[in-house]
Structures are given as structure tokens and as C-alpha cells.
Fold this sequence. Notes:
Helices cover 80% and strands 0% of the residues. With 35 residues, the chain is an all-alpha fold. The radius of gyration is 15 Å and the shape is rod-shaped.
Amino acid sequence: MTNELTFDEWIENANKKAEEIIERTEEKENIDFKK
């Protein structure tokens, strides 16, 4: 099985994952700061 993603699709997927991680990190930090 070969991965058929184009480079642009790979970048787009990586950016989406990075945004999700950043959002989760910000949520955790906001909760910690409120305590």
C-alpha cells in the first residue's frame, strides 16, 4: 500500500493536527490559570 497523499494534502493535514494540539494546549492552560 502506497500513500497517495499529495504534498499539499500532507501539509494541510499536518496544519489541522497542529491546530488541534494548540487548541487543546490552550484549553489546558486556561483551566490551570483559573485555579
